């Protein structure tokens, strides 16, 4: 994108050229020289800005689902939001996380390969403390997990992957499954050190404890579905028509819906004193004739004109006319 100079900058440039502080020939020479931009092959750009925007939108939904899930499980205030979505080498991600942390290694069929949900120890131990009856505080010194603590964490994070499945439904139906849990990043090697990954950072707050949850998605895992991560493809897929079986199921559900149908004989207006004076045998005159048809309403909409009768010793109404769409009342 070309930088636009302000009027003050233009005036200063003209003044420098006039005074001889700057040489116009040198400026032309610099302009004609080839501009070289450095490229780091260790930080290869595999995800476009469009892909990053789509991943951000997907995992904003993931953050909302996680907030609901953990709030219900921990029965306390939990707030999770997306802070950043970036791409970087896998080795750089490993070096950026604590030496002792909670690493949930999982697969998500039909995608091939493994991904990682890294939970900061402050967040993980606050969850553990809350589940075991505490107030949800993180320990001052993080130690290794016992077998009981490992089992509890595996259970709660295994269920958390259902939120990831819901968030990805707009792109692909995946089935996340926890494969292993590690605490030392050096023992976790899911891809080569130079492999580009998408890192989704989630800011997490549980009561008074805060920390980060990082989702590491290697490029090689999502490469087969990269086209689906484009914004155009995403919005197009949202507008797709329903599958035939969904249409049939919807029609069956609608056909079983119950609607109130009312056949009106007519209307009449009387005073309160006349109403209080009514007794058995009194007759109330209606505003319709016995020769007129009955107004048959579905809900509060006039749909048919019919005539009263008896069918199998039960009061019935025969439909004589279908009222045109948009007609609200029967004209005398």
TrEMBL record:
Its main location: other. Residues 252-323 form the Flagellar motor switch protein FliN-like C-terminal domain. The keyword Membrane applies. It is a peripheral membrane protein. The keyword Repeat does not apply. It comes from the Bacteria. Pfam families: FliM (PF02154), FliMN_C (PF01052). InterPro entries: CheC-like_sf, Flag_FliM, FliN-like_C, SpoA-like_sf. It is found in: Bacterial flagellum basal body; Cell membrane. CDD domains: FliM (cd17908). Keywords: Bacterial flagellum, Cell membrane, Cell projection, Chemotaxis, Cilium, Flagellar rotation, Flagellum, Membrane. Belongs to the FliM family. PANTHER family: FLAGELLAR MOTOR SWITCH PROTEIN FLIM, YOP PROTEINS TRANSLOCATION PROTEIN Q. This is Flagellar motor switch protein FliM. It comes from Paenibacillus zeirhizosphaerae.
């Amino acid at each position: 994108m070309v930088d636009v100079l302000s009027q003050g900058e233009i005036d200063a440039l003209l003044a420098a050229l006039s005074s001889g502080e700057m040489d116009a020939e040198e400026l032309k020479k610099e302009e004609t020289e080839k501009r070289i931009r450095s490229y780091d092959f260790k930080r290869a750009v595999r995800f476009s800005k469009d892909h990053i925007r789509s991943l951000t939108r997907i995992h904003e939904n993931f953050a909302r689902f996680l907030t609901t899930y953990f709030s219900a499980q921990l029965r306390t205030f939990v707030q999770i939001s997306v802070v950043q979505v970036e791409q970087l080498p896998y080795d750089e991600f490993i070096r950026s996380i604590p030496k002792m942390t909670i690493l949930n290694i999982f697969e998500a069929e039909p995608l091939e390969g493994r991904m990682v949900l890294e939970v900061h120890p402050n967040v993980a131990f606050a969850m553990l403390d809350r589940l075991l009856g505490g107030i949800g505080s993180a320990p001052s010194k993080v130690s290794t997990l016992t077998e009981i603590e490992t089992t509890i964490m595996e259970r709660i994070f295994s269920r958390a992957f259902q939120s990831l499945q819901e968030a990805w439904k707009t792109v692909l139906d995946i089935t996340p499954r926890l494969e292993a849990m590690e605490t030392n990043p050096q023992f976790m090697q899911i891809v080569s050190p130079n492999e580009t990954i998408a890192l989704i950072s989630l800011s997490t707050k549980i009561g008074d404890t805060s920390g980060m949850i990082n989702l590491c998605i290697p490029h090689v895992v999502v490469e087969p579905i990269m086209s689906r991560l484009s914004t155009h493809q995403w919005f197009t897929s949202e507008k797709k028509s329903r599958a035939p079986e969904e249409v049939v199921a919807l029609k069956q559900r609608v056909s079983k819906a119950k609607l109130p149908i009312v056949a009106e004989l007519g209307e009449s207006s009387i005073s309160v004193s006349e109403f209080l004076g009514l007794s058995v045998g009194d007759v109330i005159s209606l505003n319709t004739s016995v020769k007129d048809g009955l107004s048959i309403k579905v809900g509060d909409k006039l749909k048919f004109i019919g005539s009263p009768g008896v069918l199998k010793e039960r009061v019935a109404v025969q439909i004589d006319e279908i009222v045109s769409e948009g007609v609200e009342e029967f004209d005398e």
